What we know:
- The complex is a heterodimer.
- In chain A, about 50% of the residues lie in helices and about 15% in strands.
- Chain A contains 14 helices and eight strands.
- In chain A, strands 4-2-5-1-6-7-8 form a seven-stranded parallel beta sheet, sandwiched between helices.
- The model of chain A is unreliable at about 1-5 (pLDDT under 50).
- By secondary structure, chain B is an alpha/beta fold.
- Chain B folds into three domains: about 20-405, Methylmalonyl-CoA mutase (TIM Barrel, Alpha-Beta Barrel), CATH 3.20.20; about 430-495; about 515-660, Rossmann fold, CATH 3.40.50.
- Helix content of chain B is about 50%, strand content about 10%.
- In chain B, α17 packs parallel to α19 and α23 (about 595-610) runs parallel beside α24.
- The model of chain B is unreliable at about 1-5 (pLDDT under 50).
- The interface of A and B includes residues 110 and 134 of A.
- β3 (about 110-115) of chain A pairs parallel with β12 of chain B, so a sheet runs across the interface.
- Guanosine-5'-triphosphate (GTP) binds near residues 77, 116, 166, 212 and 246 of chain A.
Amino acid sequence: MRDRRSAAARTAVDAAELGRRLREGDRTAAPAALNAIEDRSQAGRDRARALLHEISPAALGGEARAHLIGVTGPPGAGKSSLLSALVAAWRERGRSVAVLAVDPSSRRSGGALLGDRARIEHDPRDDGVLIRSTAAGSRLGGLAPPTREAVQVLAPAYEVVVVETVGVGQSETDVAEVCDTVAVVVQPGSGDVLQFLKAGIMEIPDVLVITKGDLGDVARRARRDLASALRALGARETPVVTVSSIPPPTGIDELVQALDAHRGVVDVKAARTSARRLAALAEFATEHGESGLRALGGRREALLLLEAQDAGLEVPRLVEALERAARQDG
Amino acid sequence: MSDAGGGRATRLEERDRPWVMRTYAGHSTARESNALYRKNLEKGQTGLSVAFDLPTQTGYDPDDELSRGEVGKVGVSIAHKGDMHTLLDGIPLDEMNTSMTINATAAWLLALYMTVAEENDVPVERLQGTTQNDIIKEFLSRGTYAFPPGPSMRLIADMIAFTVDAVPKWNPINICSYHLQEAGATPVQEIAYALSTAQAVLDAVRPQVDDETFPRVFGRMSFFVNAGIRFIEEHAKLRAMGQLWRELGRERYGVDDERFLRFRYGVQVNSLGLTESQPENNVIRIVLEALAVAMGRDARARAIQLPAWNEALGLPRPWDQQWSLRIQQILALETDILEYPDIFEGSNVMEGLVAELVEGAREEMAVVAEHGGAVEAVDYMKTQLVESHRARLAKIESGEQTVVGQNAFTTTEPSPLQQGEDGGILTVDPNVERDQIEAVRHWREQRDEPAVRAALDELRGAAEDDGVNVMPATLAAARAGATTGEWAGTLREVFGEYRAPTGVDSAAGADDAALEEVREKVERVSEALGRRLKVLVGKPGLDGHSNGAEQIALRARDAGMDVVYEGIRLTPSRIAATAVQEGVHVVGLSILSGSHRELIPEVLRELREAGADVPVVVGGIIPAADAEWLREAGVARVYTPKDFELTKSIDDIVDLVAERHGAAAAA
Ligand SMILES: Nc1nc2c(ncn2[C@@H]2O[C@H](COP(=O)(O)OP(=O)(O)OP(=O)(O)O)[C@@H](O)[C@H]2O)c(=O)[nH]1
Ligand SMILES: [Mg+2]
């Protein structure tokens, strides 16, 4: 009995220690912190709570410094190759970068082949770059809670945190819940993004990127089509950047600037507060399912309840608030 | 073939001349390989087949970080023209027919060969031989590429356009279906992907030469084919390839000169099917496979090289290679196969088989064409190969396909062939690497440095300009004394680097009862671990033979694990960084080049330094003595070709993880 308590106490200390190191910008703590966040056992959940507490806005004295960027688009659009070039560009500017690559495949076996990492060239000896692959798993739609928490864990220790997800029509909404800036990546000659934009199925992203600019005419045509669709939607301000990720890379500096510009105008505090609330909701729904949500009076009610909480509360505390309310109502 | 009676002649008036007989050989230094070649020629070999080491094949000097453990290992190390001089010392270049297994750096090695000829006053017009130079199959199977697809195809086109007049007897390219079969291709896939590759190459060269020259370009294209154990079907495959090739020449390229339309090919018979268990049986397999390419006159190989009986155990010794040469000599000189016209002419069975393959290949070629041709279809073809290979392995695992001595009739006497002091294989002197590093440094010190710099600048300029053929600048660099790493490094700066698709991302899932069981275990262990069991499958070093790694990665995924697989050519530091960043529970390393003794301890050290406390397992061609040695060095498990039941190995790995991570109860 005593043994077990001391073990639990030790993990709490470990987690708090990891959190403290992250808060101080110690990047070597990041992999272990990510392992802790992904751990769904009860002990693991306790560790995650202790960790997140250490990097809450209250502990940090404000929102984490990172620029949180979502990069999303159809399969094979060139997202990972683009990240290869972007990572290099950010490193040249002295910014540390973490990439969370989310694999969409959902298989009966439960396993996944995580292949994005292979496409993101970087110097393995450079500790300013971290890449972590995760499987979206069986969860349909939406980012899994561990991914949302992973973003929060990395935000104090890296200057740029990127989430790469696959899809069109829903994936940009998901990453928008988590990130400050959303870049949708389109390859020339594929009409789905254009159609989705026109039909209003897809929200207008903060930045549109056309990849494979080296293909020439098709890339120019894609750019024209997207620009005119944006005009028709009254969003002519949305930057459209054409890039080429294969050597010699082009358009990358322009894209870095477009992303920076958006970061300059976004209300970071509001974005992060909302991200935490939505993460709490996702976590609650994962733990307690539909019936849990019903006990709260539905998603909308749950969100209202969250909005009534202090803006600086970390996710586990928000989840606790939901659980308390569910117990009272149910 | 005249026959007074008007019917078909039964015998040739004159016995056919034998094919060119070669042995794929070379290791360590140029000096040792030269001695080996001279000896092989004395034994009756009629051509040379040069095996280069992986640094030479991928364009790195012996002193490069990536070359560690690989120098002189699977072939000879050639870093500059001095090495090439030594390699060819005393060999009459105007008479010799030399085949070089060289691809990404083919332009460079040909330039070195030409330079040696020039400096020995042999006119380059007289040079005969072949540079393999087929980059698409490197992306698909063999892994010794250096540059991205676009620039790689340009190098090939430049070489072909250059040699057609300057070295007219040279085969500048040998389109390889060989390695496609090694990667799991069915006969139809082998035919279709090889011919689609040939088409992509011809399309790339066409704009560079005039209409009069083009038929000669077509005529210089040759193939390098595989032959497996189903030797009747394999023979039909070669006839089918000949038929489709002729068709392609006539219809797509308007070639009508018969001389240029002939399907010319060399062969190495199958290595994939050679077993580690009861390895002596492999000799019989090799003989039968050789029959496939020797017995029918209308589709007979022009050059043959046979693997050695012990390839699944390690590197063959000269004696092992001699045995394979003797097989060829007995076939050609003792049997009667060279005395008859084509023995299958008029056979309904053969014609039927050929027709089936032709039809299948046409359909598959159309699919490749829909993807935009072979270059664009690399992803597609790779995925198809991974799937075929998996289907093949599954049949062997389930016993549906019999492999004598491996999944059937496994009771055996101990093999006396393996009982010598060397365990029946060749070990390369570990000092070779150190010596070669010193030698290349010395070479750089004594040469005319400004001349080398100027030549490399010119090379850079040529590479940057699509309108300039890179061969003249490459030759100038070779003459000036530049090194292999400098030539390739200059081009890498201009062309960029590349990682080929792994083909596993989109491969379909598999299932059976055994896998189902392992899957449940994975679920239990994952539950106990708190998160899904995650494995890193890594290929350290320059070795590009990725099929083992790919199959393990797929099987692990189908067993329910999260699998991180980054493809080939990873440095130990990259593997360690990935293991840490990804938070994996176990690291699996695959290595077939024989450099495990150098690379594995390095990976273990990097992992320790990075603070990754995870078990490491190793799979590959690993002699028993080395396996023991690796376990002592800290490797948790060693798997060799004997462990052909992948699901079993995966199950074993799950137990290992459970044990090491304190989740044993769950397993
Ligand atoms: N020509 C050209 N090809 C590119 C470029 N960027 C990517 N590609 C190719 O496009 C294919 C897909 O690239 P990835 O970067 O893996 O695309 P992705 O969007 O991350 O793919 P998923 O993660 O599988 O959805 C690869 O074959 C790349 O080589 C580019 O700028 N130009
Ligand atoms: Mg990707």
